[in-house]
Structure formats: C-alpha cells, structure tokens
Input
Amino acid sequence: MKKLIAIILTMSMVLSLSACGSKSDSASDSGSDAKSGAASESDMEYVKDKGTLVVGITDFEPMDYKDESGDWIGFDADMAKAFGESLGVKVEFVEIDWDNKIMELDGKTIDCVWNGMTLTDEVTGSMECSNAYCNNGQVVIVPSDVSDKYQDTDSLSDLSFAVEAGSAGEKEISALELTYTSVKTQADALMEVAAGTSDAAVIDSLMAAAMVGEGTGYDKLTYTCQLNSEEYGVGFRKGSDLAKALNDFFKEAFGDGSMAECAEKYGVQAAIIEQ
Output
C-alpha cells in the first residue's frame, strides 16, 4: 500500500513539472515571437502604408525654401520629392524647430530630417543616417564694410553672434567661447546681422553662397573665415530601413546624372559627394 501511494505521488510530481515546463516553453516562445515582431518592424512599410514621407526642414536656401507660389523647392527638397516618387509615396514638408529635430523624429511627427544636416556625433548617434552627399562648412557673416577686420578666428573675440539653435554653427561658436544669441533659423541669424542687432552670424557655406553678397537679398553682407569642414546627410529613426533605400537612390541618381542636374539648378554642384 505504501509503495502504491509513493508511485502515485511520484507520477503527480512528474506531471506537474511537465506542465510547468510547457508553460515556461510557451512563454519563452511567445517572448521570442514578440522580439522577432519588433525587430521586423519596417519604416519603409510604415511610410508606404500611410502613403506619405514627412520631411522635417527649416527655411534654408538653397536646400529647402519656398518659391513665389509657396511651394517648397531647393536641392534637398527636389531630391526628397524624387526619392518619395521612387517609393511610390507623396512627400510632405514640415517646418521644425531645429533644436528639437531628434524628438520630432522619434515621436513620428516627421519621418526624416532632410535639410542640409551636418553629420555630427550627436546626429549619427541618435539617427539612422544616409551616406554623406554634400560637403559644407560653417562661415562667419559680417557687414561688407568691416569684413577686412574679421578674416580669422583670432579677430572674432569682440563680436556678438547670432546662430541657429542646435546647429553646427552654434557648436563652433560655443567651442570658441564667443558671445552669441540662439535664434530659430539660419535665416533669422542673417536678419539679426542685417538689422544690426548682432555683429555677426555663423551659417552654412552653401547658404552663404546663395543668400549674401552682390545680387542677393543681403547685398551688404559677406562671409569671411570658414570655421570647419563638414558633410551633409539625411537622418531617419534609429534602425530605419529607409536609410539604406536612400543610399541606393543616391547611388542611382549620381550614376544617371540626375543628382548633378539638380545640384546645378541650385548652384551646389561643386559640393556634391560621389556616391
């Protein structure tokens, strides 16, 4: 009798352990499936499903700016439209606060940042970035009648600067420990100098070539010393498969000459990087 009871108890324990093992294996499999599902999420599919690629920009000639009809044009804007067409989606441009670009991207209010964006450590660490497609640098903007006084960094110490918040220009001025005021856009920084409320500004060299000097809206301003050398890239959400798709698009556009044609239209052909 005792032997029979012992056998029954042993069998009960075996069945109990087997059931626990099944539950554990099931939970493990479920967790594995969940992780696999998360890893398989595709930004490409997300954009195609909603039918739009939302591009975060600022007013930044010659990369992104409005024409007389209020439509966004520029080298970056035109290339973004062509990329959207290759994906079979419409492109929507949204002006953002440049200082909040990473937050806008992660919050999915935009799908990419395509606006002459310098590939800084902060950017590449927080976004999935395309290959570099354009060379650039940060230059000092001053009134033309005093430009001969400010031809190197040693001469800048007595100036008050206007720089775009969160920009590569702000980083350079901060590193030089110069006095500056943060403004919303690089265009605002130019207006500060033109109005005399700031002595100087630091903006992208491509923007300076298009917007200051003879024949521009800021014909009494000029650019002097260049503070650095840098490269532009496009930023997507971390892990996004759209970055690779854009690299493939850039390579094709460079190869068939359409990138060069677009660059010549906006006067930035000398800055284009081979893909």
Observations:
- The longest strand covers residues 112-118.
